[in-house]
Amino acid sequence: MNIFVDENIPSMTVKELIKLGHNIVDIRGSDKRGMIDDDIWKFCHEEKRLLITTDKGFAQKRHKNHYGILIVRLKQPNKLRIHQKVMQAINRFKEKEWTGLTVVMQDLFHTINRAKK
């Protein structure tokens, strides 16, 4: 699966996703570092990539056409907990299910929205 990993996602998650065979764009340490949200959104759409982030602002895009949005929102986030939530969501949905799907992983419950086609 083609995935864009925002800078706020742990590197252990990136490594695990690569290990699972996913095509990952991780902007940490690259010239794209610090991209603004609009540029991230445009890039993900052009490249047909699932967006993984902790930035709740992307939830506003849930009704637009997209290739998947995974947002991790925890009250006391740390690298391990973010990693676990990302992997839980990635393992729950098949690649073809992500198009138009917005998943918000929280401490005790998860929100799932499907964009209208």
Topology as a string of helices (H) and strands (E)? EHEHEEHEE
* Secondary structure tally, helices: 3
Most strands sheet:
6 strands, mixed
Low-confidence stretches: none
Average pLDDT value?
A: 94
What number of domains?
Answer: 1
How many β-strand stretches? 6
The termini sit apart by 21 Å
CATH architecture: 3-Layer(aba) Sandwich
CATH topology: Rossmann fold
Q: What level of helicity do the residues show?
A: 25-40%
Strand content: 15-25%
The CATH class designation is Alpha Beta
User: What general form does the structure show?
Assistant: globular
Radius of gyration: 13 Å
Strand order of the largest sheet: 2-1-3-4-5-6
Which structural category fits the helices and strands?
Answer: alpha/beta
Keywords:
DUF5615 domain-containing protein, DUF5615, 3 helices, alpha/beta, Rossmann fold, 29% helix, globular, single chain, 6 strands, six-stranded mixed sheet, 117 residues
Describe this structure in words.
The protein is of the alpha/beta class and 117 residues long. The chain has a single domain (2-114), classed as Rossmann fold (3-Layer(aba) Sandwich). 29% of the residues lie in helices and 22% in strands. A hairpin with a 4-residue loop joins strand 5 and strand 6. It is globular, with a radius of gyration of 13 Å. The two termini are 21 Å apart. Residues 1-106 form the DUF5615 domain. This is DUF5615 domain-containing protein.
